[in-house]
Design goal:
GO terms for molecular function: rRNA (pseudouridine) methyltransferase activity; rRNA binding. It comes from Perkinsus olseni. It is found in: Nucleus, Nucleolus. This protein has 242 residues and is an alpha/beta fold. 31% of the residues lie in helices and 23% in strands. It has one domain: Alpha/beta knot. Helix 1 packs across helix 7.
Length: 242
């Protein structure tokens, strides 16, 4: 069975009711934001994974996800920084985000912006493959076909969308970037700093417009300039350790 078929089988057969925060499967599906209005209003968190190392390479007639473990020689010959090609970081981030109670409650939106300027929208309904091998097969198909559909329906689970990411982010919402070089704040401290931020109707902005957080999906280095451009607000640090 191919990596993509296995990933789809996992997505289809997995019972999502064990972490749906009090909702049935049908109720949880109804919570997933689908329209532009739903995606840019209400209490939600938008996460942008920036500088993700997702690039396809052809090896002996087959397409593979370029990474520092399997393609050292290819990276060295092309003069690329071997340590920068860590798609496993994006894999781990997506697993944690998609498995989170926040996502199960329909309160999370995820975008991935790669180092090659490819922008990907990830459906909250996606069941992320557990192994890196299966994840690699999924991403290779995505980058070749521009979309991944569910096995038993026409629902799109991942798709390549047009840049820039700013046009998909909530207008007027609170935005921030995360960086070890940012101002050190805990998450509660950062949220409290926005308690008094109101919308045009005098309502607390965090309650009415999704919060956007930009995170560098990198092993090292600092995509801070990109984060500042996307977030249009000061960069903060919630932990001094990478």
């Amino acid at each position: 069975m191919s990596a993509v078929k296995r990933a789809r089988t996992e997505e289809r057969s997995s019972s999502r009711s064990d972490a749906l925060v009090g909702h049935t499967v049908d109720e949880a599906k109804a919570l997933i934001p689908r329209t532009p209005e739903e995606k840019t209003t209400g209490q939600r968190l938008v996460v942008v994974l920036e500088k993700a190392a997702l690039e396809v390479v052809q090896v002996k007639g087959k397409y593979e996800l370029l990474n520092s473990d399997d393609h050292k020689n290819i990276l060295a010959k092309s003069g690329k920084d071997i340590s920068s090609y860590r798609p496993d970081i994006t894999h781990q981030c997506l697993m944690m985000l998609l498995d989170s109670p926040l996502n199960k409650a329909g309160k999370l939106l995820i975008y991935v912006h790669t180092m090659n300027n490819v922008l990907i929208e990830v459906s909250p309904a996606l069941r992320m493959p557990r192994t890196f091998k299966r994840f690699s097969g999924l991403i290779v198909e995505l980058l070749n076909k521009n979309k991944i559909r569910a096995a038993n329906s026409s629902e799109i689970l991942m798709k390549v969308i047009a840049n820039p990411v700013q046009k998909y982010l909530p207008a007027g919402g609170i935005k921030c970037g995360l960086s070890v070089d940012g101002r050190l704040l805990t998450c509660p401290q950062w949220l409290k700093s926005h308690d008094e931020t109101k919308d045009s109707k005098g309502r607390c902005l965090i309650d009415t417009v999704p919060v956007t957080v930009v995170i560098g999906a990198v092993a090292h280095g600092e995509p801070c300039s990109v984060i500042k451009e996307l977030a249009a607000s000061p960069v903060v640090c919630v932990c001094r350790w990478n």
